[in-house]
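pinning this so it doesn't scroll away 📌
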Amino acid sequence: MSWFSSSYNGILLLLLLLLQFSYQLATCGSIVKNLPGFHGPLPFILETGYVGVGEKEDVQVFYYFIQSENNPKEDPLILWLTGGPGCSAFSGLVLEIGPLAFKIDEYNGSLPNLILRPQSWTKVSSIIFVDMPVNTGFTYARTESATERSDWNLVHQTHQFLRKWLIDHPEFVSNEVYIGGDSYSGITVPVIAHEIAQANEEGLQPLINLQGYLLGNALTTRAERNYAIPFAHGMGLISDEMYESLQKNCEGNYIDADTRNALCRRDIKSFDDITSGLNMAQILEPLCEWLSPKPREVSWRRSVTQQFPLKLKNAHLTLPPLSCQSYAYYLCEYWANDENVRDALHIRKGSIGKWSRCTFGIPMKMDIASSFQYHVNLSRKGYRSLIYNGDHDMGVPFSASQAWIRSLNYSIVDDWRQWHTNGEVAGYTRTYSNLMTFATVKASLLSHLANDIHT
């Protein structure tokens, strides 16, 4: 063998080893059998890990994967994004749809306790809870240039994440896949689903068995707040006279009221005053202010990111009452920042500093104005969808979702009816000919999500 041949083979071997190392760094998962704060071994399969995405895989995306507790070989696979933007998927896991929840005990300095949630969606599906965008939860960037956040970066990187994850988990390639999320994820989830569908049509491997998407209390057109005033009137929060004056002076445009006439600005100020102190995410729940030195200013017209700045600031923390749903946020912070917890989750040493449930302080370029056209395109392609709203949410009212769904102009195939759980009316639903189902969820069933459904 010539010197050139042996050198070439040596270089090739080195390159293959480097590629193998890069792949291992990009897609690295570990089974978690025990979690600090939970008594005994976990009764389900939990895997955590990282997938490298973006240029040179400089964004290391952290995920929690929980296999279906029913039949993981055949049950659907859901990729779940928590909204914000910038809130960890851990919120979805322990505060919304996952199999774990915090036991709400008064914090005494010890590690918060975890308990099982019997209504977990993992009873019938496998779920990948993904920390996105970059610098959310345990997801981190290896270079300064990779820290840029935007809607489109989130879309492309999440799509890339899923294909790489499936390469590393070939046993799930044939499973039906759904993309899901809540609140701000209503902007990005339909775009992710559409990008996956297009890539499948172009033959990008591995093919993803995409069947549809699901969204809860989700932004779509960014005009949802125009429906807050009609919602408030319908709920008896403002008088007929105030509502009529708002309609007359603002002409139905309440978002841009600051640039409109003086009478509209006056009426908006009156509306803000009379609805102050309400929890916009769930008007039956207390607002539960808990940050000091002064409470956060809440305005229904502000962006979701501004409206729900619940990032923990230990140096200035005042706790909410134990009965408040937001108490669980406080427990999340202490649990996720414990070194034993990080070791159990296989968090890379030095990858991030303090973990925050939501990273609202990091700029995010909101470069997707509306996801409506992507709903249109996905409907034309025949994908299924589930759109659901809590019926006491004033931030993204159910009437706002109904309005854009109605404008799709599909016929109703299963008209307005009750749906039930545990023998009680859980809400109302209807299904359209484009395989889209809309549902309301009764307030009592969403009480555990109050204050969090918009993050």
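📌 and the second one:
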Amino acid sequence: MAYNVYFSVLFLLLLLISFYSECTCSASIVKFLPGFDGPLPFELETGYIGVGEEEEVQLFYYFIKSERNPEEDPLLLWLSGGPGCSSISGLLYENGPMTVKHEVYNGTLPSLVSATYSWTKISSIIYLDQPVGTGFSYSRTQLVNKASDTGEVKRIHEFLHKWLGKHQEFLSNPFYAGGDSYSGLIIPALVQEISKGNYICCKPPINLKGYVLGNPVTEYEIEQNHRIPYAHGMALISDELYESMKRICKGEYINVDPRNAECLKLVEEYQKCIGRINLPLIITPLCEKTSPDCYEYRYFLTAYWANDERVQKSLFVKKGSIGEWVRCYLDIPYTRDIKSSVPYHMNNSIDGYPSLIYSGDHDMVVPFLGTQAWIRSLNYSLIDDWRPWMIGDQIAGYTRTYANKMTLATIKGGGHTAEYKPEESYIMFQRWISGQPL
């Protein structure tokens, strides 16, 4: 009997040793980064968390501790859009503590500089490369199934539990999920998944407190159809063309009945008018990203930086795990199986989770008119009606608050992501996450 017990215990120990030796979850502290002068003035950790039955999918993340009080400050998960855009977009352009210096590429490594309006001043942030194939995330085996919206929700949920298991000091911190653009389809479903998991399956519970979304894709047809009234309001198309489109297309400009030749002709006229508009920020010129005069030239520089062998070594990227790093891998194999995130917003509000939905008002990719339309469809009563929100004596945008704890905010002069108006975006986030009115 004792003999059998001995071997049973020995077998269990061997299993545990095997598990921990094969677990590919890894984390490393980054003190210096090529291109940044001196030691990093914030705490950066990078690593992989394996998800899936055999941890075949290795999700890469950047984690930056709050610069204020990491023991108590909120913990924010930040996703970039795409699908297929690296979370380095959030870290280097939108709300991270450093950015790429806008200077003409001369063959040397692009420079990084500190950013003034980092959200890490008041919260810790996990920037996650997802789905697999995005940024530095990779798979150890050939995947049978393509990534999908609903599949990503489950993978990110698993990632969070494993990450918190390795960072238990953050279990009690208020947790928020956030992102922009395409993550507007993922984050609301993830919030619902976390909320259900806290009650049904997954211990310890994630201390979920709410979510924040910028110019979120929510329901493709709503956003696409609202580009036309947006274009009219911004004087990109004439009154006559707009009135004709309304009358003949009847508000349906995307899936036009092929028999409606008159509508198709009007849509063609519309496309001629907006064909040279830079949709993410309509007040900037449309130009090649390799032009130093272009706002998005930093994206071009980032590709040189992230593909540098010294940079990848400093970030502890597994050598040979990916080919060329690209900021947005838009041809990523992916199934878009969440057609609308409106039902998830509804369920989350019923469960009492506050949300901040903000829109740069000069974005035509996901125009604020479309965002307002799906929020109206929720039929929630108003707590605080439309009013300007201020920074000092200047209007930074407009806001209204709903009975379901949803706050809508516009950012005046803002574009598709927070990067275009960093000060306004930071102050808006700081007020909301602190429970203050905008």
